[in-house]
């Protein structure tokens, strides 16, 4: 019945109010007319009946506040009027009661109206000289603070806005209100309201501290005085989304004064979210930071957050890689060569730690490969990146080896020789890349000055990140010292002598650097190579695994040694000048060994070497190498890696041109056996034993009875 009455009077009621408002504007009145409901006997009877059905005047008053008052159009009925019309004589509705009634309705319009009345009442009672006592004793202010912790989201959010409005009106102080908000955290049900109020207070605090001509410095830090947002995050980990939303709003605030100083205002919060090891790593703070304009403040804060990432910790390495990955991806997208160049060596160090802790480094390799494709500036970091990647080779599983080789020279080549020395089916694809790297190394003779350390150290961002990792800074220092001393052999030798005195465990960390010096092909540095080689050989006693890495390096150095071997022989010893064939014999012997072990997997790759040996070794000094080459072909035939008929077509013309005398193998065998039997019958005792051992290697069918002397038979 009441709803029908309200709907019946509503058109005329609102129409009359609009006419009154128009008349007030025409008469230029300051205040608008009041909204009034046309009460009648029917409406009074309905209200009285509702209170009667409630059972008591107190219950009827609650019914009127919660159910009846929201039915009227906003402003056309007040709680005091409803009580009077319903005949509740024993209940006097004070202004505070009306406010309470409206707040309990949870109607957003009524709640805002109630909070607005509270603010007006507080402002009217406020006396600046009695601020401290007023803030503690005022009942309306106590109610407002109480409603900030209400369960209803509309009430708590509006009440928090009311506190913020009182600060703007000068009734409350910023610091005291911030402390009040923080004390409400344990009892708060709506953290979003608390956090949004904190953001508003931070803006007011920021504007109050700005001094023209000076740089703003935030008063809050990680510990004391702690930033309010950090306090919220420590009390409730689930509030991170609300905090990040307010941080984004501050960073993108329409007021330039706020947005330009937002990073300084939120610096400690960004550090807490990105660097706190006790929190789970989230990329949202990084994405927010990277989405902001690349100002000096943004770069400074980004480098500070990166510098605090721990890459030498098993629990934190994945989080650190995620952070560096996000920043590098953004730099590659912007084609920011300075950032990419600075980040590549750090990514190489991260790949070291990923492998060390048994994690997959291939995403890191892929990111580095993309980084090197950005312009030409990242090339200045290539030397340092390679020497750091070389540390991965001794401990890289076969699964990750191909990606390691594919990405990448002296240290890198030195560490890769041990894998080339022991081929495997599991590393077939990886060793193809390794062989290509080795060919580039062998063919390259020019010195690229763009790889020198001064070019990389001119990068300001790299200098900021340099000392975040001990191994990275030590490697850079080593390379810088070597570049300064490499043209002065005396100073370099003295420096290397000093390295001999350091602890063996430290020398183990410098192995990649030592290998690089050993592989240096500068002819003027042979004495340096030998000096470093002695240091590494001495380390074998400290760590036996060094021998596995060192042996292939020694073989490679010996095989590629161009120093005159003849000088090692005593003068006048005399020997034929067949040294040029020794390399062919050594090479084809290695090929034969591979044919015996891996003919099926590497056979086709060995055919060109066998063919070139046969073409080159066609005279008498090359007969030994040629015979071994033919044995290699026989092994390839047996393994099915080479078709006999095609090989014979290539061999037949060469054998037809052979000018050497045909050897009758049967006649040769009989002659050899006859000579051996003669030694048995006529020779000295030691000669008889040797002849018998030789005869034991011949089949009995190799000679007849007449070849045996009468005495022996």
From TrEMBL:
Domain DUF3730: residue ranges: 574-660
Superkingdom of the source species: Eukaryota
Pfam families: DUF3730 (PF12530)
GO biological process: regulation of post-transcriptional gene silencing
InterPro entries: FOCAD/RST1_DUF3730 (IPR022542), Focadhesin/RST1 (IPR045163)
PANTHER family with a match to the protein in the record: FOCADHESIN, FOCADHESIN FAMILY MEMBER
Record-given protein name: DUF3730 domain-containing protein
